[in-house]
Amino acid sequence: MKKRIIGVLSLLTILLVNFNVVTGEAAKETKPTKETTIYVVRHGKTWFNTQNQVQGFCDSLLTEEGEAQAKLVGEGLKNIKFTGAYSSDLGRQRKTAQLILAQNTNKVPQIIENKGFREKNFGGFEGQSNDAMNLAVAKALNLDYPEGSDELWDFLKEQLTEEELANKVAEVDPTKTAETYDQMKQRVEKAMPQVMKKVAKKGGNVLIVSSGGIIPILLESVAPGEYQGEKIANCSVTTLTYKDGKYTVKKIGDTSFVDQKE
């Protein structure tokens, strides 16, 4: 009888331990992750921007206006406690990130450089006038097009999607070194998980400084269909959140910080 009671107790103990292990694992699996807010900022205005030159993998310094823009964004975000900060290895992105964080009132993280956030590679058009590249694309389309610089760019944006325009640039690039849309998307799709792997568990706020051509592709990669052609101006802020594997877009191309009067 005594052995039987001991046996029953032993069985109950085993069942109880197993129950606690299973429920403990279930609790771990269902425990919600903390929300992460991501501030994606386009770099400040550069010399190439003012000269209407193609600027992708090639680089140029921020102008005085570009530095002032970055400082205004930093002032607007000065009370945000960042748990992570990223840019590519391009100087204009790095400098913008440095100026933003320099205004912050909290202890700021070290900037991590990730090549995935570089601007598009425009191949043989790098450093040339934007007009030369846009004209090459327009002629390849065999359509009547406006001759004015701004009008031509707007015309192309109306005729082609982001994907089509990127692929057409790659197609007409005489050196055949410009990136296709898929190549750009692939590197962005690698970069974002690398960021979230480091920051998602603790949540908080993350700064990413990138470029005007890549931010729309970044948005499309994490939240398909959300980007609808909004302008990504210098030092505009695009805000999204991440929780439990899902990205939610809050604002796209917000210029309220740089529009402030100093």
From TrEMBL:
SUPFAM superfamilies with a match to the protein in the record: Phosphoglycerate mutase-like
Secretion signal span: 1-19
InterPro entries hit by this protein: His_Pase_superF_clade-1, His_PPase_superfam, Phosphoglycerate_Mutase
Catalytic residue positions: 43 (tele-phosphohistidine intermediate), 119 (proton donor/acceptor)
Keyword entries, A-Z: Hydrolase, Signal
Gene Ontology process terms (BP): negative regulation of glycolytic process; regulation of pentose-phosphate shunt
Protein name listed in UniProt: Phosphoglycerate mutase
Species this chain originates from: Enterococcus raffinosus ATCC 49464
Species classification: Bacteria, Bacillati, Bacillota, Bacilli, Lactobacillales
